[in-house]
Design brief:
102 residues, 2 strands
Length: 102
């Protein structure tokens, strides 16, 4: 490791700025959701699912490679890698199904 990267400083700066903008937008949306009592319950439900997901994440981390492949095959429909290493993941199911634990 000599500290060099295949990515230019401009590309890395652009990707960092894009990620920071996405985080700011998500925080703004989160704050807006919390202002509405109906949405507050949904946010709590999402947090509960996230906590449950961490248990599954640990199982995934400890699984053998064939088991990991099987888990990912059940979760993802497809993964696309585009120009500039833009990754798009198509998840099986919908967000509402996730919330209802279907």
């Amino acid at each position: 490791m000599d500290g060099r990267s295949a990515f230019s400083q401009e590309m890395l700066a652009r990707l960092i700025a894009q990620a920071e903008a996405e985080v700011r937008q998500a925080k703004d949306e989160y704050a807006t959701l919390l202002q509405n009592n109906d949405h507050r319950a949904t946010v709590q439900q999402i947090r509960n699912y996230y906590d449950e997901f961490l248990g599954w994440a640990n199982e995934f981390d400890l699984a053998a490679v064939p088991r990991k492949r099987a888990i990912l095959a059940e979760l993802f429909e497809k993964v696309e890698v585009g120009r500039g290493y833009k990754v798009t993941i198509h998840v099986k199911g919908s967000y509402k199904q996730f919330l209802k634990n279907e």
